[in-house]
Amino acid sequence: MTYGTTTRRTITERADREVPAARLSKVSATGHVEELSKIADLKRNGDITAAEHERATERVLAD
């Protein structure tokens, strides 16, 4: 299972066009929470290692 940045980027780009700037940060934060949840699920299910989990989490938080 891969949760790439393409989907998140597409959603964010759509949000940039459709959502007022005041609400955009809430949309981005929600996307980050969902992404972190997916990453945690992958680790919990044994689909990724602890190191992969850490790198993926850092990538999301740096975004």
Write a concise synopsis of the structure shown:
Helices cover 81% and strands 0% of the residues. By secondary structure, it is mainly alpha-helical. The two termini are 21 Å apart.
What does the average pLDDT come to?
74
- Beta percentage is under 5%
- Which parts are unreliable, with pLDDT below 50 for 5 consecutive residues or more? none
Largest sheet: none
**Backbone shape:** flat
Helix-strand sequence: HHH
Domain count: the total is: 1
How many distinct beta strands?
0
- Category from helices, strands and their pairing: mainly alpha
End-to-end Cα distance, whole Å, is 21 Å
The share of residues in helices is over 70%
- Gyration radius from CA atoms, angstroms: 13 Å
Tally of alpha and pi helices:
3
